[in-house]
Structures are given as structure tokens and as C-alpha cells.
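Record filed below.
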Amino acid sequence: MLLFFINCSNEEPVETSKKNIDVSDTDRSYEEFDISYGNDPKQKIDLYLPAKRTSNTKIIILIHGGGWSGGDKEEMTPIKELVKKDFQNVAIANINYRLADADNKPFPMQVNDITSVIDFLKLNKSKYNISENLGFIGISAGAHLSMLWAYSFDSNKKTSMVCNIVGPTNLIDPEYINAASTNTELQDLLNLYGIDASSSFLEEASPLHQVTASAPPTILFYGGKDPLIPTSQGIDLRDKLQTLGVTHEFTLYPEAGHGWVGLELLDTWLKLKVFISSHL
């Protein structure tokens, strides 16, 4: 699911601890890994703070994919490296969250984890010398969670922008349900929400049904030949954002699947970079 960004870095990033650097030294960059924001082993974040940070420094939160039941924040390392390179005045929080299984539904567990991350950052904003203003970059399930939190759970309206790369938007989309009838992998993902989940519950967990006119600017990327996410998931959200008057951009790569490389990859980052510059 991270084919998008694998080729964007010429070498493997090496993460080294900076525990010898005082976090209060705001003239220097600071990195801290596997910070606990809850009691579960998966409730960890990696934090990257820029040099010359102030109380106005904004945060980009990275949310990995993995079908709500897998994945890890390490998969977002290539994106983290791009953000660090091109946005040297922005803080980054790369997060893990509790994974769903037969006994633990993704919703509301995982959006609750995002809330816990936001609360942790808010509680420690003076320590880290950062603001409460933030943006999201999410891939696949991580994009779904990014949108859902920003549209439905950001009661303080601190989200400045959301990037959705191949994220599910509507869990009751007929095309999504029809695709699941012939795709075991997709059906297993939907079953995480409950085999007999009600339509009202699935709507509550669907960004398309939660978005309002006050939603933050949103940029969407989809592949026309994605075996997991029908193009209707992106097109329907695009159309609703248009109707609501929400600032948005939409890109569909007709020949791409659930990830892409080459010129499409370059196009994605160039568009996302401009969008972040304009809205974060």
C-alpha cells in the first residue's frame, strides 16, 4: 500500500535517537520515538520537531493503512522524509493505533486513538513548543480514519487540511458491497465492522455521511483499477464536497491500482506539496 512513495527517497532513512538533545532547545530539531499516548502497546507515536519551532508550529499527523487490522507507522517513513525535506518548519507525528480483530471493531476504537493522540499533543504543546493546528496525511484505512476524525470528531476545528490517498469513504456504497461479494479480502475487511452491522452504524463510520460544510480542505487521490476501493468511493465524496462548498482537489489515475509509481507518484507529491503549502 506504500508503492506511492517508495521511490521518492534515494536512500534508506536512518533514524537515530536524539535523547541527548534537550526538547526545550527549540533552535535544534528534536526526534523522539515510540512515545506512549495510552496503555496499549500499539498506542505509540514518533515525533519529529523542527528547529526554530515556536508555539505557532503546526503538526502533520501521518496515519498508516493496513485494512484497519494491520500495518505499522514505519510504513509511513518515506512520506515522513518527504515532509521533513520540503516542510522544514512543520512538526510531524507518525502514529500507531490499536488494530481491529474479531473482538475489537475498528470504529470507534481507532478514531478514539486519534483523539488520544490529539489530546496528548495538546497537553504537551508547551513542552514540545507546538500549536494545536494540524493536518492529516492518510493512506487507505489511514485515509479513512483521517477523514472521519477531521469531519466528525474535531470539535475544536483545529484541522487545516486532510490528504486522502485511496481511502474508503462510504461503507454502505453499493459498488463497495458488490465488490466485496466477489472479493474475499474486501469482504473480510468489511466484516471487521460486524457481519450484521446496521446501516446507521456503517454510516456513522463513513466520512461521506459525516462530512459537513465546515469540513477542512481535502485532497483526494484514487486509482481507476484499484481492486479494493471502487472509484465511486472517491467520486461520490468529491461530488459531496463540491455540493457543500468545501475546498477540495480530486485526482484519478485511470490505470493505477491501490498504489502507483513513476510519473503518477511524482504528480501525487507535487500536488500534495502545493496543497499543504496553501492550507496547513
Summary: The chain has one domain: 6-279. Residues 6-279 form a domain with the Rossmann fold fold (CATH 3.40.50.1820). The beta strands are 30-36, 44-49, 59-63, 91-95, 134-139, 159-165, 218-223, 248-253. The two ends are 25 Å apart (CA to CA).
